[in-house]
Amino acid sequence: MKFEARDVDLYYGSKQALKKINMDIEEKEVTALIGPSGCGKSTFLKILNRLHDLNPNVRIEGDVKLDGKDIFAEMDPIEVRRRVGMVFQSPNPFAKSIYNNVAYGLKLAGIKNKTELDDRVKKALEDAALWDEVKDRLNSSALGMSGGQQQRLCIARALAPGPEVLLMDEPTSALDPISTSKIEDLCHSLKQHYTIVIVTHNMQQALRVSDKTAFFLLGEVIEMNETQELFSNP
Ligand code: ADP
Ligand code: ADP
Fold first, then answer.
1. Short-list 1, 11, 19, CA closest to 196
2. What's the pLDDT score for residue 234?
3. Cα separation of 175 and 159, whole Å?
4. How many angstroms does the Cα of residue 206 sit away from the middle of ligand 1?
5. What's the CA gap between 112 and 94, in Å, rounded?
6. What are its GO biological-process terms (predicted)?
7. Which atom of ligand 1 is closest in space to residue 13's alpha carbon?
8. Which atom of ligand 2 is nearest to the CA of 43?
9. DSSP 3-state assignment of 139?
10. Which residue CA neighbors atom 5 of ligand 2 most closely?
11. Span 24-50, mean pLDDT?
12. Residue of the nearest CA to atom 20 in ligand 2?
């Protein structure tokens, strides 16, 4: 799977928030979007799973392709969201049990068989490095977990339906350093199976987790390159 954005402009009403964004996002890599607050990182990320569809005030121009298929003209939003999972800045688990948070999307996708649900919930929790911590309390409320656990639960919930891409919008900015490093470790293990795009305002984090980095400034990508290359140039 590969994303290709070509000359993407985005307007909130009359205000232009993205200008001529061109970006290739490659399979099994971590791509970091960095830059100061308000420069369009989150706005760009939300294009990739058609989250702006919900906002009638948004107008998008240009092309975004997922494996050569235009995500707006040739795919429906349900297909895009099935293939592209997302995790937000603040952990936002449902007020349900740990199990049901992860099973939710699977049930929506029509999976009813209890054994299959159990297996897939377990697999997603393992992939999110959470299984060992929660396997004895799957029926407890997700709201009783620590912030870091809640964020890994949100990752498990996003992974359960089997997306190819995982988008993460500043996933550690509400977390303590230990929880942050757990999420950063996850980026490394998950990229073997998923394409990951992470928004961060922390250059050190981009350096630790990403293969490629795109610098945003005032709605434009001013530079994109291999992370190691970018950070080795003075
Ligand atoms: P970043 O993620 O880099 O902090 P954002 O993508 O959130 O930046 O915001 C880019 C610009 O678009 C900012 O000026 C912000 O205020 C504006 N913006 C973001 N969301 C909306 C919205 N829903 N409606 C109008 N303007 C928005
Ligand atoms: P985050 O900090 O999580 O990236 P955003 O910057 O996107 O959050 O802003 C949080 C919410 O406020 C979002 O729903 C966003 O669309 C909205 N928002 C941000 N800036 C504006 C703005 N200038 N006008 C209207 N809504 C905005």
1. 1
2. 62
3. 20
4. 21
5. 20
6. phosphate ion transmembrane transport
7. 25
8. 7
9. coil
10. 42
11. 97
12. 38
CB contact at 8 A, 30 and 61? no
Distance (Å, rounded) from C-alpha 191 to C-alpha 176? 23
Structure tokens at 33: 């979007």
| Residue carrying the six token digits 């308000």 | 38
User: Which strand (E) or helix (H) includes residue 103?
Assistant: helix 98-108
Does the beta carbon of 36 lie inside 6 Å of ligand 1? no
How far is the C-alpha of 39 from the C-alpha of 221, rounded, in Å? 9
Percent over 90 (pLDDT), the chain: 97
Residue 62 burial (10 A CB sphere; 0-12, 13-18, 19+): middle
Residue in 8, 19, 43, 199 to alter for ligand 1 test, most ligand atoms within 8 A of Cβ: 43
CB 71 within 8 A of CB 65: yes
Binding site membership of 89 for ligand 2 (Cβ less than 6 Å): yes
ipTM of the complex: 0.81
Global pTM value: 0.91
List pLDDT tens digits, range 94-153: 999 999 999 999 999 999 999 999 999 999 999 999 999 999 999 999 999 999 999 999
The total number of residues written for the chain in this structure: 234
